[in-house]
# Entry
Amino acid sequence: MSETVLNVNAPPKDHVMVLDGQGWVGLVSMMGSETTIVNAARVSFGKFVSEISERDIILMKYLLENRHTSPLEHVVFSFIVHCPLFVRSQWHRHRTWSYNEISRRYTETDIEFYVPPMVRSQSENNRQASEDTMSKEAQNEAREMIRKANEQSLKEYEALLTKGVCREQARGVLTQNVMTTFWATVDLHNLAHFLEIRDHAGAQWEMVQYARAIKQLIKPKLPHVAEIMHW
Ligand SMILES: Cc1cc2nc3c(=O)[nH]c(=O)nc-3n(C[C@H](O)[C@H](O)[C@H](O)COP(=O)(O)OP(=O)(O)OC[C@H]3O[C@@H](n4cnc5c(N)ncnc54)[C@H](O)[C@@H]3O)c2cc1C
# Structure
C-alpha cells in the first residue's frame, strides 16, 4: 500500500490560482465528457458516439438553449478548493454539491489567513454590494489592519491551546479570513447554475474569482459547452 502526505495548503497539478495567489481551485477528477452529454440525450435512439461531430454541437446548443439539461447530470467534477471561510460559507449554500472539508478539530497546523489584495468600500445604495472607490493609501491602511487582526487572532488561538483549551473551541477566535480546504463534487447541470449566479455582478468579488477559475479549469475539458455558455 502506498500513501502520500498532502499539504492541504498546496494545490494539485491541475489548478488555477485566485485572490493574488492566496487561494486556488484544483480539478481532482472528472467523470464523462461532451460525448457523454450527447449519448445520454440520444438514449432513445440507441446511438453512441465516441467523437464530437457538427451534429453533436448543434444538439448540445439545442439542449443548453432550451434548458433540457438532464443529460448534463452525467458529467461530474470533483474539485479541491482553498478559500477563506466566508467564501466557503457562500459555496456551501449550494446544496446540490457534495463536500468534505478539513477539520480544525483535528489539526492546529497549516493555518493561513487571507488578506484582500484590494479593499473595497461599502456601497451606499446596496447593502450587499461593494465599490472600488478607496484610495490606494486607504486600502493599504485597511489591509494592514486586516493583517494585524488575523495575526492577533492566531496568537489568541495558540495561547488558548497552550492553556489546554480544546481545538474545537479555541478555533472560535480565528477570523473569517482563515483559509480552509474542501473537496466539492457536482454534476454539470448544477455547476452551470452555480457559475451563472456566482460569476455575476451581484456576487461577492472573492466568490466571482473562484467561479471564473472553475470556468478556466473546465473549458479545455468541455470546449463546445464552454463556447455555447460563453464561459
Ligand atoms: C448574490 C447572492 C446573494 C446571496 N445572499 C444570501 C443571503 O444574504 N443569505 C442567505 O441565506 N443566502 C444568500 N444567498 C444564497 C442563495 O440564497 C442560495 O442559497 C445559494 O445561492 C444556492 O443557490 P441554489 O439554492 O439555487 O443552489 P443549490 O442549493 O445548488 O440548488 C440548485 C437548485 O436545486 C433546487 N433545490 C435545491 N434544494 C432545494 C430545496 N430544498 N427545495 C426546493 N428546491 C431546491 C432549486 O431549484 C435550486 O435553485 C445568496 C446568493 C447569491 C448568489
User: Anything to note?
Assistant: The two ends are 41 Å apart (CA to CA).
